[in-house]
């Protein structure tokens, strides 16, 4: 027999959900948002039952219950409780409540409870025995008067609750048991796999071991066991590889621990020294020290994390190792290195290049010099090649180049870790130019030129048998076309390199001719108006017009031109700010922020250069802030940190730019002398629309507050964003909302207008 139910619930959502459900079942429902409204409904009459939340603003559920019973003591009252406090029930009973519903409730549970209450109301009308109860509960005494039926109802409901929670518990138990079984199953599969793997690894013909990140052997080959004089692989497991396999430099010196192949990987979990080949001496069981070529590769777990390192040693006695004339690896050893580099190709380490350098007019030379002198020339060329490999221009683009001598006047270099082919062509050009020039052989002064051939691959399967001959063929083709050049087996690469060189030369010229301009964008205190400006570089190109830094900063970074560019911007910005603080009405407290490239940060005289810019302009160090990116600091963390501390001690501000986009190594943030975080524009952009972005912004702001840093939000374009940022506790904002970056004159106009208004 459906009746009319009254719901009192302050949460609108919960109220409407409950109403909709009860109406679906067939009850007539009236709802009230608070106690007063509910009493009003009861006063009007016709209500068969009250369901009320306990926690409500104003009149709470107990009070509502008490007043409802005063109006109509027959009206059944059910209180909604989360049952976190057992006293809820006692207080409810004191207030005269008839029953409780535990939140969250299931609808079927709710249905049966409501039905039971309505049904029993009729019973209650017939058996109205009042019972007085004295209740001791939690060391307190409570007096409750209730009807017998009311107590019975409560007992039945509590029992029902108990049954339900018991069922839930049992179900959770069953789920847990199932999960446990699955885990056990997986574990035994892992064990089985490991066994199989160990068997396979043991039979690898090379001297090979797998170690975990602590350097402990987890698998080894029979060849390794034989090499070190052990019975078998099992005997090596669980021991430190470095104690089993003794390695020394090929000069005979002991290895420092951190130099050992694979050590960097073990320490950082990143495949830091992977893919490189190490020439070392290893102590063999027979007491001899033999030359080996060590290679390492990361072992990754299912999640892609490095969990160990595979170490392979190739005994080099069989390979043609050091060419006696040049002391460079010979043909076979070099080919091995090329293959190693190609195997280590990854997405970021995108291209492996091979360079073959040959002497121009080499057969004429060897005819006129004779064998002895020709050999001495080759040996001297090898020395220059070794030198060239250490040049910064080469190191900058190549991740561990290594050279070989192929015989017959052909030198070869493998270039792992190239960004693209054009970089390889540039490096090849540097190498051959460095080897060219005048050599004194006995009493002869000889001037030579050389030609380089280049080949490259980005495909993991490519073999040295293809790459080396292709580069050699390109080199010989080049000599036939007049020599003194680079030829590539893929012609596009040479053009790409030429374009890049041209663009670089253009930028260098632009910097020298003073075509760079500095624009200024206001940084606003969200409470107090203009706080400072950020200096942003622009390039007024004589032909191509206005160039945005997004277009030329990457080239500047890559070529190193960002260093002179950056110092020029700093110099101009300091001068400009010194002038504004002096002359601009109300400008005395302004600060200027200048972007620093990672390349500037690692310069040894970095602090002196900043000091010089301050001294030349007379700007107070407190008026300067330097913006660095997290990635920039990571490059040479210790040196950079020390330098930044010195600047910070002088009063110069240090801001982390683009916060949230880079490494976000929060740990490092604590060791860096940073005083400001700049939340990257991309997150501010999505602040009002993308919950993830909003979370990142608010987390960055809280982090900054916790570390007592200032926060600047970049790229603020709307008043809503600014309002939201203020609400989150962000101090500063920068963006088109206030102004785009402006040339100095326009900035002054803006400032005067902004101040006036
Ligand atoms: P950044 O340091 O993150 O500079 C902020 C960039 O956001 C500037 O671009 C600025 O014009 C832009 N921006 C500011 N407010 C808004 C906004 O409300 N909406 C949008 N969509 N963009 C806004 P810009 O000037 O093109 O500079 C780009 C980047 O070039 C800079 O990013 C900085 O990394 C680099 N850069 C600029 N000048 C220098 C410099 O002198 N040295 C170095 N090393 N890098 C510089
Ligand atoms: Ca910046
Ligand atoms: Ca930024």
Bound molecules: ligand C2E, calcium ion
In terms of per-residue confidence, which ranges show pLDDT below 50 for 5 or more consecutive residues? none
Q: What is the number of helices?
A: 27
- The assigned structural class equals alpha/beta
Strand element count:
29
Average pLDDT rating = 85
Distance between the termini: 72 Å
Amount of beta strand: 15-25%
What strand line-up does the widest sheet have? 21-22-24-25-26-27-28-29
C-alpha Rg (nearest Å): 39 Å
- Strand count, sense and closure of the main sheet? 8 strands, mixed, barrel
Share of helix, binned:
40-55%
Inertia-based shape: flat
What report would you give on this structure?
The protein is an alpha/beta fold and 757 residues long. Helix 5 (107-126) packs antiparallel against helix 6 and helix 18 runs parallel beside helix 20. The model has no long low-confidence stretch (mean pLDDT 85). It contains 27 helices and 29 strands. The longest helix has 55 residues, at 148-202. It starts with a strand and ends with a helix. The chain is flat. It binds ligand C2E and calcium ion (2 copies).
Features:
757 residues, six-stranded antiparallel β-sheet, alpha/beta, binds ligand C2E, flat, eight-stranded mixed beta barrel, single chain, 47% helix, binds calcium ion
Quick recap:
The protein contains 27 helices and 29 strands. It is of the alpha/beta class.
